[in-house]
Amino acid sequence: MTNKQPGMGVGALVTAIIAFLLAVVPCIGIVAIIPALVAIVLAIIGLSRSGNGQGMLVGGLVVAIIALMISLSQSFVIGKIADKSGSWANNIEEVVRDVTDDLEKEFGNKEVTIRINNDDETVEIKASTKTDELKGKLEELEETTDTVKAKPEGETPGEK
Amino acid sequence: MNLTSSRKAYFSINAILAGVILFIMGYSAFYSPDEDKYPVPCIHEKITGEPCPSCGMSHAFSLIVRGRIDEAHDWNSVSLRIFSFFVIQLVMRVALGIWILTGGRHIRQVAIADAVLSSAMTLFAFYPFLRALWLTLFR
Question: I need a labelling partner for A137 at 20 to 30 A (CA). Which of A152, B38, B104, B134 fits?
């Protein structure tokens, strides 16, 4: 090794090790692309200049390439998860729609009563979801609206 | 101190890596886990909206340096394994640095053994992350 090579070798190896440690951590894995590329460049420059004793440079190059590959695969993972997240949203929408349909089928024509007991007091809420009943009420309301429209001005709907 | 070229190189690697580990520990000690004002966001979570296997690591490291191991485990179950790796590596770097300065012999053999041992330790420490990466890519 010439006098200049140890510095280059140390730089390449240390940068490669740091890149590797960054690359394997999913939170910051993508960032490792930069030090990995720096280490590769340093190692290649060092290797092109040196004659013998290239252990550290080769070591640095190998570790940097592995770090770069891991770092790139982290970005693939992020892409893959982002895609899945999109499909999860669609799946959730489908599930909600299915559940709503099932609930409509199950309770669409029934009467629901909620009773709340608090010591002596009892509150009862009746909610009829019978489709026929609801249709009838809707028709009734429509008729009332028509009658209100048909009556002359000044007369209120309650007056008969 | 007159060190040969290879000794100087090996000493530099040990010194720089020890510095990096001390920086990580200093970072963990500086930021309080109770205030939760860590400057490094999870890029993975920002992009995907999903937490990654290393989420909560900074918080867990801050708790470990304060001796709150159980809480650290709750934040990130892998944190203790990785923190132990850094502690062992710091001890190794300091010990090897001193050994080089005091004129230890067979530096080449020691360096190779160090590289093999440290690689194995790295793979063991970061195995859960590598496994998660593998499963996501090839599942």
Answer: A152
Residue A79 CA: distances (Å) to CA of A113, A148, B45: 49, 61, 12
Domain boundaries, chain B: 5-137
Predicted ipTM > 0.90: no
Q: With the C-alpha atoms ordered A69, A75, A76, A77, is the resulting torsion angle positive or negative?
A: positive
Chain A CB within 8 Å of residue B43 CB: yes
pLDDT digits (tens, 9 = 90+) for A107-138: 666 666 777 787 778 887 776 666 677 778 88
CA atoms lying within 13 Å on the CB side of residue A96: 6
Is A26 in contact with B12 (Cβ distance < 8 A)? no
3-state secondary structure labels for all residues of A7-37:
HHHHHHHHHHHHHHHHHCCCCCHHHHHHHHH
